[in-house]
Structures are given as structure tokens and as C-alpha cells.
Amino acid sequence: MATSPFYPPQRILMGPGPSDVSPRVLQAMARPTLGHLDPLFVEMMDEVKGLLQYAFQTQNELTMPISAPGSAGMEACFANLVEPGDKVIVCQNGVFGGRMKENVERFGGTAIMVMDDWGKPVDPEKVEAALKAHPDTKILAFVHAETSTGVRSDAKLLTELAHQYGCLVIVDAVTSLTGSELRVDAWGIDAIYSGTQKCMSCVPGLSPVSFGSRAVDVIKTRKTKIQSWFLDMSLIMGYWGGGTKRAYHHTAPVNTLYALHEALVMVQAEGLENAWARHQHHHQALKAGLEAMGIRFVVEEAARLPQLNLITVPEGVDEAAVRARLLNEYSIEIGAGLGALAGKVWRIGLMGHACNTKNVLICLGALDAVLSSLQAPIESGVAVGAAQAFYQA
Amino acid sequence: MATSPFYPPQRILMGPGPSDVSPRVLQAMARPTLGHLDPLFVEMMDEVKGLLQYAFQTQNELTMPISAPGSAGMEACFANLVEPGDKVIVCQNGVFGGRMKENVERFGGTAIMVMDDWGKPVDPEKVEAALKAHPDTKILAFVHAETSTGVRSDAKLLTELAHQYGCLVIVDAVTSLTGSELRVDAWGIDAIYSGTQKCMSCVPGLSPVSFGSRAVDVIKTRKTKIQSWFLDMSLIMGYWGGGTKRAYHHTAPVNTLYALHEALVMVQAEGLENAWARHQHHHQALKAGLEAMGIRFVVEEAARLPQLNLITVPEGVDEAAVRARLLNEYSIEIGAGLGALAGKVWRIGLMGHACNTKNVLICLGALDAVLSSLQAPIESGVAVGAAQAFYQA
User: Fold this and answer.
1) Which residues of chain B lie closer than 8 angstroms to A18, CB-CB?
2) Which of A212, A283, A355, B347 would you label with B193, given CA atoms 20 to 30 Å apart?
3) Contact A48, A260 (CB under 8 A)
């Protein structure tokens, strides 16, 4: 039987990502495909590189998008920097620290785990104790913005600590890039990866990465071959490395790179500091509305990510049923809790193009209506007004 | 300085890929992004899987697109099937056999090479000799359609041979899928990967793969963990495996999957056998024109891929200058030779949406005009007429 074309509805994506994509980005992606060695495409690649350097706040030459989602960016960092026998301290306070551990072990390293509760930031004291206890550690790896919990850890402080003890850092910035303050060069971050589908208003499928000079030295002086051909940065550099002569490595995802280019042009036009401030501003409005309703935040205020709000499900409420009604009746997607938090929390994203006044008010209104109709123990009918009052103040 | 949006020109992509993308596919890709766990998106994923099973001519349950280009699909096959110490016979008759060797070695295996000249198909006699000489071989790996040379090897016969000697096969079908006859189940292929940017008229960025039951058994009974988290099929199955409960593995490239869905709907509507015949038909027309001009094919007729035509550069002609003029004056991209063939050949692709009468005639006309203006030793002014005569016959 013939399959019909697929026409997706227009959702409002306020989960943990993908978030709403700007129509400008969608249109850019539909432009005619060029060859991946076309001189005009190669010029555009150079622009993407420059724009990513701006987004990461770095001068690192080795800054580019990996041709696959954020998980592959993580893998690119670990595959290139970890050799069999290396010791890596991995901070885990959510899902993605656990994935880092898997990466370390699959590339033959030993992972020393520093555990914090889900919903808490990485504890620098525990990290320092681990660094002291394991002086032969090569890398400290941590998540800047934990997508599973909405927690920000102190990337600047943790990087300083690592360097004091002679370690490199690998930083997961999937949910922070262009949404929260992040300064790769000023903070001295050695290797970092992100994703396009969060605060950059771009489609999923690419993973921006950046490697500093210390990390590049480690790659260049490896004793063993990188355990991946596709993610071998020493080969990828030949294609993304600049100059007019590009060595073919793999066929770049041409149209998705158009999308990233357009998203980054928009980031540049807004200004990075303005983008960070916008995420904070709408977070405050959402918070005013949620708290007026009586819904609590899980994460302590100092560690909250404005772009990803972890909130408690009111007592007695079937959280999955609420999400299904938001999706089916209002076309709004919010996220469920993961792991230990499953069933107890929601994750409301305010990322990139989705982070605006209209979405804050629609989301609060819809949540209010659905929870009220379920006789949930909340304060009905006040959330939208509280957010509006914040916007008008 | 502010970077401007990027507006690519409309090329005619007749190189080794990416090839022209159907406007229907580009439009599908620009539809609103859904969450990667949205019930409607999950339904679409099931359709993609079914359509890929049709394209591969297989009932294999484990059939899906890897969220990255063809090189990652290759890596997915080798990473999952090769364990340290395994012996793999790799047939090399172009660029991609060499990449297979890299893969085997990076995953800890030993590659036994069976070498054939670039431009020749894999020689089954040499393969059988290698299988006899190495009875402990686990896998035979070969390229069905060598993108670097335009050569088709006999996938059915090589698979039979491998099975006679108790080996699995890994087949590279990047350039053959939907362009040339390929029957995964009828031929008994155990593991196969392809790319979306060749004969499927889709954008680059995804790699369809399929694993048969013997390959799945090998994955399930591995002694060691797969040396990649991103490409670990046992984890990816949890997301693509069917059913309504999907385990999050990575964020799927949602919009690129819309593109693949649309491209596969078009393959289904045309019919696979019709698509194979269309590639053969326009190849014959191109051949009539090129031969009238006095340009020779490099590959013997029986092994020629209709979708990728390897032809000799006329004596005394600077091949790069010709390609540059075709691109700049006619917006036509054709491909250069690689490796030992660099400077001596061109590769003219007739793939997917680009494989049509109009492109054959435009390409012949442009090549005729450029070569004539350079006083190249060709027969001028007859190529287009020869192709037209073929079409009218």
C-alpha cells in the first residue's frame, strides 16, 4: 500500500529539545543543495566556523560542527582525547554524566566517578578531592547544563580546578550554547561539544565542537589510532581546516549546514549577551506564573538554567496524561522527567526561538486549564496574570 | 562584521554525489520540527523503516537510517560486527575498500586485503582464494558500487562465496541503493549500508543500514562492548525498534528524516524496478553522446554503473579547468578522479532526481562546447544529436 507524504502539525516545542526552529532556518534548509566541495559551499563553511567561534567565544582554529547529533559530538571529544589506560574523572549529576562514563570506558579509559544528586550542580569540593586522590588523571569531564535536570554547574570554576591539577577538561554544552553565559577562551575550556536543536533555534542533527591548543596537542601526540574513522579529528581537520584545498573526508550534510549558518547569522544579529538575557527574562516570567499557581522548582535558584525549567508535578496528578493533553489539545510539547525523576517532574524548555512572551503565556494558560480541569491542588486562574505583571513591570 | 544569509545557486549536480534533490524533498524538509518522541513522528519513523525495507528488498527488522552520513553507516556495520582479533577479508578496488580496512583495524580486527585495480570489479576468484587461505575469517567486506570508479561488483556471487566459507558479508551500497539492482534478502546480504545523497534524490546526512538475522546474532553475542556509544545498534534498536515505547538514545535529525521519508515515498511511487531501468536508460543516452564525441569509458561494459560514468579526459586537456568552466558557466558539477585516477578521468553522475533527459542533453552540450573551445581532440557538435537519436529510437 502506498505511503502518503508526511505533513507534521505545527507544535510549540517547550520540552528539553528539539525546540522551535525559526522559519528563517527552515527556509534556509530548503535551498538548493550544492556539492560538498563547491567553492561557494566551502566559503559558507568558513563562515559557519567563524560564527561558531563567536557563539563559543573562542579563537580556537579547530571549531566546527560534527556531521551528526550532540551524542556524536560527545563521542568525538572522548574518542580523540582518551587513549586506552587513561584516567578520566567524570562528574555525574544527571543522564549525560552517565553517558560520558560509557564513552570513557568504550575508548579504553578508566572513569573515576564524582556523583551528585540529580537536580544538584556538580560539587567542586568533591571534584577537588577526586583530583587530589587521583594525581594521574588526564581529563576532567562534566556537563555545563544538564538537560535531564535543568541544572547549571560552574564551568569556569571546574575548569580552573582541573588546570590546577594538570588536567584537561571536556565540557558538555549541549543545552547551554547561546542560552547561558559560556566563554570557552576566557574560561580556558579545552574541549567542548554542543547540539544545534536547543538554544540556537536550529534543527537537530549537528554537533558544534571546539578544541583548544592543549587538546589539539594531545590529539597530535596520541600513541594509538583514534577508535573511530568518522570522528577522527585529525582527518576531519583536512576538510574543515581552512584553505581552498579541502580533502574529502565524508559528504557534509549540506542542507543542515545551511540551517546552522542561518541560525548563527540570527545569533550574531541578536548578539550573544542579548540572547543570554532573553532566556533569563522569559524564565523569570514563567517562574512568576508557575509560582503564582503554586508549582515549585526543583533546582536551587543559583543553579537553575533559565532555558530548562524542572518543576514538580502537583500531588495526585498523572503527569503523562497532562503532557498528552497539552500536546493533543494545545499542540504544546513539554518534557517528562528522566531516571529517578520520572513521574515526579516536568521539564519546560524556553530555548532559542521558542523563548518568547507568547509561548510563556500560552504554556501557563494551557497548564492552568488542564490542571484545573483535573482538580489538581493548584491556584487556578492566576498564572497568566502573574507573568503578564512581570512583563509589564 | 555581520555575516549575510547564504543563498546558494541552483546547480545541476552530476558528480559522484550529492546529486540533485527533488524540490518535493526540499519542501518536506522545511516542514515544522516535531519532538523526536512525538507520537506522530514515531509513526513516521515506522513508515521510513517500511519504505527502507522496500528499497533494500528486505524483511530485516533491523533496518533504519543512521543519523549521520554514509561513512557513519560504514562505521556502524564494522563497529557492531568486528571484535578485537576478528579476521576480515576486505576487497579493495577503489577508495572505499581502503576506508573499510581502516575501520576493521580501528575496531581491533585484522584486515586481509584482496586488491583489484581501480576501475575493475572485485575478482571472485581472488576472493575465493583468500577465503580458502584464511578459513578462520569472520567477515567478507566489499563495495557493491564503487563511487570512486563507477564499478559494480557482483554482490550476489560474492555473498554466496562468503556463505560457502561460513562468513558474513558487509556490503557498501552507498551508490547502488535505488539506482541498480540490489536485493538484500534474495542475495542473503548480512549487513549493508548506504547514503541518502546518491540515487535516492535526498539530501546528504543519513545512512540507511540493514542487518540480517545472522548479523543480529553476532551483535547479541559479542564478548566485548561495541567501541562506540553513538553507533551501538543494541542501543539504537531501543529507539528505532518499533512499538509505542521508544527509549531515548539520541535526538533524531527530525527534518532530515522528513526529507528521507519524502524521497522514499517517491521511490515507492516510481517503483524500484522502474528506477533501476531509468538509470540504465539515461546512461545509454549519455553513452551514445559521449562515444559520438570520441570520449571513452574506463570501465568494461559489464561492470559499469549506469549512475556513475567514469570517462577519460581527452589528451592534453586540463581536467580541472574544464570542471571549473562547467560549474561557473553552466552551473553543472561533474566529479574529478580520485587517487591513481586523479587528473585522468571525470566522473559523471546520473543519480536519482538528476537522472533525466534534460540533464543528459545539457551536460553533453556543455561538455561539447567547453572542449571544442579548448580545441580538444574530440568530435564536435555531434554529442547531443547522438543522445537525442537514442531517445527517439
Assistant:
1) 33, 35-36, 251, 254
2) B347
3) yes
Every domain of chain A and the residues it spans: 23-269, 272-392
For residue B131, give the nearest of B160, B155, B162 by alpha carbon. Answer: B162
What number of other Cβ atoms are within 10 A of residue B382's Cβ?
17
Verify whether the Cβ–Cβ distance B47 to A265 is below 8 Å.
no
Q: Going residue by residue through chain B (393 aa), what tens digit of pLDDT does each one get?
A: 799 999 999 999 999 999 999 999 999 999 999 999 999 999 999 999 999 999 999 999 999 999 999 999 999 999 999 999 999 999 999 999 999 999 999 999 999 999 999 999 999 999 999 999 999 999 999 999 999 999 999 999 999 999 999 999 999 999 999 999 999 999 999 999 999 999 999 999 999 999 999 999 999 999 999 999 999 998 988 778 766 567 778 999 999 999 999 999 999 999 999 999 999 999 999 999 999 999 999 999 999 999 999 999 999 999 999 999 999 999 999 999 998 899 999 999 999 999 999 999 999 999 999 999 999 999 999 999 999 999 999
Indicate the class that CATH gives domain A23-269: alpha beta
Between chains, do B13 and A5 touch, taking CB under 8 Å as contact?
no
User: Do B22-269 and B272-392 agree at the fold level?
Assistant: no
Whether cis (ω within 30° of 0) applies to the bond prior to B18 is yes
Alpha-carbon span A84 to A373, nearest angstrom? 57
* Residue A21 in contact with partner chain B when CB distance is under 8 A: yes
Asked if the C-beta of B250 comes within 8 angstroms of chain A's C-beta atoms, the answer is: yes
d(CA B152, CA B308): 10
Nearest to B3 among A47, A74, A203 (CB): A47
According to CATH, what is the number of the domain B22-269?
Answer: 3.40.640.10
CATH 3.90.1150.10 fits A272-392, yes or no: yes
A-chain CB neighbours of B70 within 8 Å are 250-251
pLDDT on residue B374 = 96
Contact B6 A21 (CB under 8 A): no
Q: Which residue bears the cell 533525466?
A: B356
Which of A33, A38, A227 is closest, CB to CB, to B21? Answer: A33
